[in-house]
Amino acid sequence: MSPLEAISRWLESQDLDTQLEVAAYVTFSIFRKSDVLTLGGPEELDTLQRWLTEPELDPRAAAGRALTFRLAFEYFAEGRIRGDGWKRTEELERKSLELAKRDGKLAAARKAQRKLQLLPTRKEHWYRVAKSWNGLAATYLTREALALGSLPRCDLKAISNSHCLPLVPTVEASDAALVPIVPATAVEEGEEGRNEVLFSQKSGQS
Q1: Percentage of the chain surpassing pLDDT 70?
Q2: Does position 54 have pLDDT exceeding 80, yes or no?
Q3: DSSP assignment, residue 68?
Q4: Apex 72 CA angle, 67 and 75, nearest 5
Q5: 81 and 170 in contact (C-beta within 8 Å)?
Q6: Could you give the CA distance from residue 129 to residue 115 in angstroms, rounded to a whole number?
Q7: What's CA 107's distance to the chain center, in Å?
Q8: Rounded CA separation 148/142 (Å)
């Protein structure tokens, strides 16, 4: 199974709310169809899945997409685990509730209210999501796995070693944090660009 196929199957294995959250952020980061991040919906999820499963994709392009998704997802997931990434979500949920009440859409209002009430549970759920992703990344997104997708070794500087340490912390931010070793960069190479970023986990102890 290729890295891109593994990502697609992993995404499909998540609950619908998680899929929509991921699709909203990743499509916003990659395609920038809007200047404003939204809660996401079926359209964003469909767009992301079609991007992940495009048939007859060149192996180099497929490996590049796998790296692109990983970078976007792990930045998003880090905010979820750290806690500050929920601020925008809560703001959007409250706005959705206010609009639904104003327009007299009782079903939509109840749904928005329910999602706000479930925020603590959703936050806890994301620890399991992060652990699941780390397992996938350590298996299918290593340097060797991506190299099998015909991505030249010189393009894999973002992968620190064959085991590829998880980039998403799975403990409270007070106990561990992601520390950037090198800045994220975007390098244009012909018709294709690449994003490079490298993180490590650092103990909160001084």
Answers
A1: 68
A2: yes
A3: H
A4: 120
A5: yes
A6: 18
A7: 29
A8: 10
The token duo for 189 is: 């190479």
Token pair for 183: 């800045």
Closest CA to 132 of 9, 28, 4: 9
Q: Which amino acid makes up residue 51?
A: W
Task: Please determine, for residue 55, whether its predicted confidence score (pLDDT) is greater than 60.
Answer: yes
Tell me what the pLDDT averaged over the chain comes to: 75
Three-state DSSP state, 157: coil
The amino acid sitting at 99 is L
Residue with tokens 């859409």: 105
Is the pLDDT score of 142 beyond 90?
no
In this structure, the dihedral spanned by the alpha carbons of residues 88, 90, 92 and 94, taken in order and rounded to 10 degrees, is: -150
pTM here? Answer: 0.68
Q: What are phi and psi of 23, to 5 degrees?
A: -60, -40
Task: Please give the span between the terminal C-alpha atoms of the chain, in angstroms, as a whole number.
Answer: 42
